[in-house]
Please model this.
Amino acid sequence: MSKTFFDFESGDLSLDFANTKSWHASQKSVEHLSSYADIVTWGQEADLITAALAHQILNQAAEQPEKASNAYDHAILFREALYNIYSSLYAREPVPPDDLALVNSIARKAMAGLELVSERTKFRWEWTPGISGIDTILWPVARAAAELLTSDKLLRVRECEDDRGCGTLFIDQSKNHSRRWCSMDSCGNRAKARRHQAKIQST
Model:
């Protein structure tokens, strides 16, 4: 796809999925996954599914709208659970048990949906044939979350500290691990300008 509508700059697939709602920590959040089709588009842009598979999944959804609606609701709950877990960890607060239970339920299905495939003297993980619908998208996200939550990289997961409630999650890859903003072009610049203005007013 030549044009992308979603941001994939967090440094981890599960964080990218959690970031599909903007201003997540504010009272005026902006939803970017407003439909089943939006989740399919995200999966395609994340290179989790091909255009042909995306078309197939959408056809299945059109044939079973109630099932697709339930799958969409489940995916959004999963997205919110991921955000709540990472946000709580960054704030040094207890992880919500219900959110962890939901992530675990999807992660278990994802792990069970993997199989080892040999390629000469090497092996790799592949998804077992028959995975369909949004599961084709959520399972790789759940696997990425499981890997991040059990890795040393978890210590570098940050949430944008913009006081308006940006809430964007990312892995801090700066040399001194001091990154506080989603981007210096947006929230970071605003914070810098506010500090400068406060300094002027105090003199």
About this structure: The chain has a mean pLDDT of 90.
